[in-house]
Amino acid sequence: MTSQLALPLTRSLAHESQAQVPRATRIHVNRNLRLDTVGWVGFDMDYTLAIYRHPEMDRLSIEATVRKMVERKGRPESLLAMPFRSDFPIRGLHVDKKLGNVLKMDRYRYVKRAYHGMRELSKEERRQHYHSRPVRAGTKRYHWVDTLYALPEVTVYAAAIEHLERQGIEVDYAQLFDEVRECIDIAHQDESIPGPIAADPDKYLVRDPNLGPTLHKLRSAGKKLFLLTNSRAEYTERVMSWMLDGQVSEYPRWRSYFDVVICAAKKPRFFQETELKFAPAEEGVVAPESAFVDGAIYQGGCLTELERLLKVASDEVLYVGDHIYGDVLRAKKETAWRTMMIVQEMGAELRVHDEVQTDLARIDELHAQCDTLFDELRFRQGQIKAIDRELEQREAELGRVAPSPAHAAARLTHRRAIDRIRARLHAIEEEQEELEAKVDRAFHPFWGSLFKAGPEVTSFGDQVEQYACLYTERVSNLLHYSPVHYFRGPRDRMPHEL
After folding, report:
1. Res. 348: pLDDT tops 70
2. Cα 390 from Cα 383, distance rounded (Å)
């Protein structure tokens, strides 16, 4: 459904089936959410409303960061020519700043895969460093990579470790990572990264033709919209104008879509502070006292002040963002806002998931075979113990006696069966490992699926489940739903209910 719905909406439209929406554009539901109870919808900008071309954007960020490391931190000029793989990192990784490793963990903080530079750590190395004691991911030793914005940092870090160690240079891994982060921040602040994007948005941004109609549809249903971004006002003006101006005739400028525009919000601090006031971000605008001025751009502020000025209850706000910590997690922890997370990787994840269905079915089949074999193994082992107990009882009653031929034959039969079962289990384990590796390579050459680590949910997937009421690939997927749609989550089941 791509056209504007006539209002008021019928009851049947309000309860349209999720199955009617194509899977590629579907909004996935973790917790029930009724859009008819939402009065305000807020949006982040970068990687939420603004969709970036990753190869171009990552290369710009990587090259700008490395230049800063050479110019400001005195790193060798050879870094400027070092090879790097911009496709190396994915979201949800953890950087171990003590050992210089990049890790992928499941929701239980078990390290399933790890790299030092571009070299994958062996199973024994992972066990030595991370499996003999709990990984305390929330400490300063570890840095969580939870945004697309942060992927170039990991690319530079891994490539620099690889390059410097090959040159025989001793590396302080924590210092190097801090330098990478500082230099990429400088590159954003001095316009080394935002400047080229604003000057040539066609090169770095993807224009979504359904974005304007989506925002228009929400406004037509009586919802009010606000923009809440960490980007500065000048950059926001350039990007939003390029994305939205001229898309829908009823909106002469991009600002017309929004009732409130807030830049330089400094999330997640925005959600944590309580006394920060909004300031004007352009000339001729005064700080708001009791309400925002239509069409004006503000900066700073905090959640408490925003809700006061909007005169809205927390549970009537839906906030849409891409940053699991800065947008979604903090919004859920500090307020009753409902949340929708934009996961631009969803398209690739869904496509590959469909492609590997045969392998996944085979893995499930092997798991079922293992269960049957373990049952058989327990039975055979129990039979041997029963024979041994019977012999022990006879010895206690009659003194030492030799096992009867029947006992010996039965014991030998069970022992041979156990050997065959163990050999089959070993073969199944090898096939499972090969299939799991094949599936992982289909999703990503280094890390596998964004959401899964083998059979377990990743730490990233766990955060999405916990803190995002809804998640989808892009904002314009809302166009496929009524503005009063009732998003119903699947019935959650514990293992004993399956």
Report:
1. yes
2. 11
